What does this fold into?
Amino acid sequence: MITDSPRTRLAVPAVLGAALIWSSSFAVTKVVLSEVPPMTLGALRFLVAAAILGVAVHTGPHRRRLPSPRQRLFIGGAGLLGITAYFALENVGVDLATASDATLIVASYPLLTLVLSGRTAFSPVRLTGMLLAIAGVWLVVGGRGGGTHSLWGDAFLIAGGVVWAAYNVIARRDTSGASPIVVTYYQTLAGAAGFVVLSVSEVDRWSVPGGGTVLRIGFLAGLCSVAAFLLYNHGLRGLEPSVAVNLLNIVPVAGLVWAVVLAGETLSVPQILGGAVVIAGVTLGLHRKKTRGGLRAEGHPEPGQ
It folds into this structure.
């Protein structure tokens, strides 16, 4: 239930703002990948994001409540999985496929995470939603065509969903008690370090990026990896998690618009149909179940694009 309070009125625009920023990341990434190789893009993006988060963490009140070295190692390990491994698969997938494919396939990630976490009851409605989401992804992947490269790209994107689900399971075991921005900082720092190592394999493809590319990398780092996260977590203070997750259903819809506007892509009928089926399946899969205490919802936000 959404209450009409100043905090709630600000919370909804905050979550919608985060969703709109995240929805543009695939199209922006696709444009940048024409000039910067995938692992190098990850290194540049998350080094900048780690620097921004580091300033916020070490100059604000969070510096008095930092996790212990052992807890930082655990958080960093989650970062290697949720940032380095996940975004490496996503960048390669977007490079080989299309931004619109990425947008539609990633729309199924919350339900995939819910299923693989082992914390969901398979009610008839939820099972129907899961099957619908799978069918929608199949329409996106198999109905468009586009050659072997695109199919490999879609496969990388689907593998990224499995990695994202595993990250959610592991990150949930964090017992540091640190604030979300502190956890995100150490995850981002570890993820950036992992990308730096991977980017060495692309040294023969390095070149000085143009001004437009630099601005796009700054957008991915500052807005997609930092600002959207802060907006989303601000929104969570005034909304039930289930409401916030439902608001994120705007991501695949807006993402298709960005793919056309920013990346110059065209959409096929199977893609549009598949996207609609994915969204319907995810909505059913996150169906709230009645309990004695009212309504209960399970779900996870989109990947922190």
Q: What stands out?
A: The chain has one domain: 6-296. The CA atoms of residues 129 and 280 lie 7 Å apart. The two ends are 27 Å apart (CA to CA). The first strand starts at residue 289 and ends at 291.
